[in-house]
Amino acid sequence: MEITTTELGLAARVQQLTKTYGTGEGQVRALDGVSVGIRRGEFTAIMGPSGSGKSTLMHIMAGLDAPTSGRTWIGDTDITGLSDLELTILRRRRVGFVFQAFNLVPTLDAMGNILLPFDLDGRRPSALERARIDGLVESLGLGSRLRHRPHELSGGQQQRVAIARALATAPDLVFADEPTGNLDSRSGREVLALLQAASREHGQSIAMVTHDPVAAGHADRVLFLGDGRVVADKPHQSPEEIAAYMLAAELGTAAAVTA
Q1: Residue 146: CA atoms inside 13 Å, Cβ hemisphere, count?
Q2: Which whole-number Å values give the CA distances from 18 to 65, 128, 142, in the listed order?
Q3: For 44-70, how does the pLDDT look when each residue is reduced to its tens digit (9 = 90+)?
Q4: Among the listed residues 191, 182, 211, 163, the one whose alpha carbon sits nearest the alpha carbon of residue 54
Q5: CATH code at 179?
Q6: Whole-number Å distance between alpha carbons of 59 and 214
Q7: Is residue 216 part of a domain?
Q8: Which band of pLDDT confidence, cut at 50, 70 and 90, is reported for residue 176?
Q9: In this predicted structure, what is the pLDDT of residue 253?
Q10: From the CB of residue 185, how many other CB atoms can be counted at a distance below 10 Å?
Q11: How many domains does the chain have?
Q12: Is residue 4 part of a domain?
């Protein structure tokens, strides 16, 4: 009998995940036999140099892309063989997303954007969900901005709306893809503190792809990818420790190439 993802204490996991692009001599192996889990209630940072496979891993874990081989679970659901429609419904109900570019709908106000997952699902929030949303709006400081459209909000406020939208359905997992990439340093720190609080105070499972050691320093765990493989799995690290590891890894790669 197979042990479930939940029994392993994981929100999501992949097993022997491989992803290749192209054929023949031009083939690129973006992921090479990766097996890893995102622990429930933890804030995990996924790091690595450009081309290491970190974004590909996140996209496959979130059901946005299909692997060449291997298996992927969200909770106890094996999503590997699901149809596009089944994946769309699963993402809408059980996965939250926070993107670098915010990805808010420009014609909707802040509350309309927060409620978008429910509208797409053809339903209204339950009383419990409404209370959760009200709590998110308050904790994110959005109360006076709910009737503003995205162009009337600062970058930091837009990302707060995106975080509220991602957390509104209490998803199994939130994927954050370079969430501070378009923000100034102060707004970036605020957004990272909010994600950290969602994990520590509310048990939200978060996986964040980033190249920024300061951002990764907010995480409980840091996964380092290199050449499509997980090359290190470390508990909380300071930004200085992360930067030193990244530099050493890149120097090591350069040394290997020139040797």
Answers
A1: 14
A2: 12, 40, 41
A3: 999 988 888 999 999 999 999 999 999
A4: 211
A5: 3.40.50.300
A6: 23
A7: yes
A8: very high
A9: 55
A10: 9
A11: 1
A12: no
The tens digit of pLDDT for each residue in 102-133 reads 999 999 999 999 999 999 989 999 999 999 99
**First CA to last CA distance, the chain:** 48
pLDDT digits (tens, 9 = 90+) for 209-231: 998 999 999 999 999 999 999 99
pTM of the model as a whole: 0.89
- Annotate 5-27 with b (16+ C-beta within 10 A) or e (fewer): beeeebbbbbbebbbeeeeeeee
Question: Is 40 inside any structural domain?
Answer: yes
Q: Are 213 and 234 in contact (CB under 8 A)?
A: no
Domain enclosing residue 64, as ranges: 10-258
At 139 the three-state DSSP class reads helix
